[in-house]
Amino acid sequence: MNKINYTHSDAEAFCACKVSLDLLGDRWSLIIVRDLFRGKNTFSQFLNNDEQISSNILVDRLKKLRSLEVINYKRNIRDKKIKEYYLTDRGIDLYPIIYELQFWTLNNVSFNETKNTKAWGKSLKIEPKEAIIETYQKNYKKIRADKFGF
Questions:
Q1: Is residue 14 part of a domain?
Q2: 138-147 per-position pLDDT tens digit
Q3: Residues 9-27: tens digit of each pLDDT
Q4: For residue range 46-94, what is the model confidence (pLDDT) as tens digits?
Q5: What is the DSSP-derived secondary structure letter of residue 94?
Q6: What CATH number is attached to the domain comprising 50?
Q7: Where in the sequence is the domain holding 102, given as residue range(s)?
Q8: Which residues are paired to 71 by β-bridges?
Q9: C-alpha span between 45 and 30 (Å, rounded)
């Protein structure tokens, strides 16, 4: 997989943080990646997430993530109208970022946590960070292999 070619007309050099935020720093891109790690993989499943993304924004972010080779899709075998999205290896590489964002939030923000967030937070007290990240990435690769054959 080739690197993403990032160019911008107003500067010669860029900070890596700025580039990553330009590419993935909108409100929805990492939510879609998170949802893929959680087993969602169709447009309707993404549309019906707890955060209530609008359909036009969802279409835009799916196209953007696909153009960045973070996700791709295959057509459903039984219904060719349905696209089943999956994370590429580049997308799977984003899990440590999702981990760190969630970790920071749990340590620094008081909020009403979902059941999933509470369970994830409990696992932080039991398992080391590296083990959690490795488990999520390996589990997703297994799901992808079982569902998509690679």
A1: no
A2: 999 999 999 9
A3: 676 788 999 999 999 999 9
A4: 999 889 999 999 999 999 999 999 999 999 999 999 999 999 999 999 9
A5: T
A6: 1.10.10.10
A7: 23-145
A8: 87
A9: 15
